[in-house]
Amino acid sequence: MARDLILKIDWIGGNCPVQAEGWVGDKQLYFRARWDGWRVEIGGWDDLWVYSEEYGTGMEAGWIELDEAMSFIHKAVDIYRDQYREIKDVDILSSDSDSGSNADSGSVTDQ
Description:
alpha+beta; 1 helix; 5 strands
């Protein structure tokens, strides 16, 4: 599950803003640090996941070093993986209970 969500950074750089683009599994990742905060977006229009934090004051976030940006990206991706794992566990539990009720009623479901 979560180990399938491999982080791949295609590009990172810049100042004001510092940005990165890449992938987490098959979902696009975008990182942006500017002004007094940073954020990571994973997914697309229909399933966008966002994590952000404040950083410094004024324009400090836009001048972070790339290794610090990568540590922020890793932090957000770890949180995403944990939440993804919890969602998958719930989906597995609900599909197990659903299939059990279908088996009891004698119905067949194509999967």
